[in-house]
Write a structure and sequence with these properties.
By secondary structure, the chain is of the alpha/beta class. It folds into 2 domains: about 1-205, Spore Coat Polysaccharide Biosynthesis Protein SpsA, Chain A, CATH 3.90.550.10; about 210-260, no CATH class. It has 11 helices and 9 strands. The protein has helices spanning about 20-30, 50-55, 75-85, 100-110, 145-150, 160-165, 180-185, 210-225, 230-255, 255-260, 270-285; strands spanning about 10-15, 35-45, 60-65, 90, 95-100, 120-125, 130-135, 160, 190-205. Helix 8 (about 210-225) packs antiparallel against helix 9 (about 230-255).
């Protein structure tokens, strides 16, 4: 591909205590069909072996940044933009796995339509042991109401023009919902595009933590206040966060997380599971 010499892509992974999954995440990036990229690994003060795992890769496209401090995800997401040199920026979590052609497919959307600012995709839900669970659907967004109704991009599937991120930073007041606030703030002025196919294996079980949803309550209160939402919408997002946190807490206590997990993806056939398992196995073998 001649355009690989022309379009430079930055891929950013914030890392925190991800020693079990990090190598697979990195390998999935290095094995992309599109080769002209930099991979920035930004450690957030990990206390496990994550930093050593990152350093074990010798690919010249990798840049490792570590200051030994735990600053939190939002700060690190903004830093990743500051450290990036590409025309486009790709989000990636430290426990997820890219499809081999993710960068190529998302980049092709930008090449074929100059009005699009951000591309996101569907995902395939997997367990911590890399078992295929089902299909995680993302939906197109047109306006702020769509965002309020939960029609948001799956955050680690997002690829955007670098200028989008330089002009629109993540804000610190919205912990555990920094992405939702960003989409809400920008949706009226930018064009989002859903690729409508999976480009990422998404590790679901790490999301089943009541603590995350309890912390999110403050973020949603700040969100409702900042955007002066109606009483109905404020109650909708804040009360739902409180209820969800309580439900997750109770289900964790009785070890019933599997039921909650099943609500986060769409069931697929055994044939489809086999297809996606083949793709996943070829990446992580």
């Amino acid at each position: 591909m001649n355009d690989q010499k022309e379009i430079f892509v930055s891929i950013g992974i914030p890392i925190y205590n991800a020693e079990k999954y990090l190598a697979s995440a990195i390998i999935s990036v290095l094995n992309q069909t599109y080769k002209n990229f930099e991979l920035i690994l930004l450690d957030d003060g990990s206390t496990d072996n994550s930093l050593n795992i990152a350093k074990s890769f010798s690919d010249p496209r990798i840049k490792i940044v570590s200051d030994g401090i735990n600053k939190g995800l939002i700060s690190r997401l903004n830093q990743l933009i500051d450290f990036s040199n590409g025309k486009y920026f790709v989000r990636m979590d430290n426990d997820d796995i890219m499809f081999p052609d993710r960068i190529e497919k998302q980049l092709n959307v930008f090449k074929n339509n100059s009005t699009i600012d951000l591309v996101h995709s569907d995902a395939i839900s997997i367990t911590n042991e890399n078992l295929i669970l089902g299909y995680k659907k993302s939906r197109p967004q047109i306006n702020k109401l769509d965002i309020l109704n939960g029609m948001t991009p799956i955050h680690p599937t997002v690829m955007a023009r670098m200028q989008f991120y330089k002009d629109n930073r993540y804000e610190n007041d919205f912990v555990q919902m920094e992405d939702v606030e960003l989409w809400y703030r920008t949706i009226d002025n930018y064009v989002f595009f859903n690729l409508n196919e999976p480009c990422l294996f998404y590790r679901e079980e790490s999301t089943l933590i009541s603590k995350k949803h309890i912390i999110m309550i403050r973020g949603k209160l700040n969100f409702a206040k900042k955007y002066n939402l109606s009483t109905i919408n404020s109650l909708k997002i804040v009360v739902s966060a409180r209820i969800k946190g309580l439900v997750y807490l109770v289900f964790e206590k009785f070890n019933l997380q599997g039921f909650l997990l099943s609500k986060r993806y769409i069931e697929i056939s055994d044939t489809e599971k086999l297809k996606y398992n083949t793709i996943l196995t070829e990446i992580v073998q």
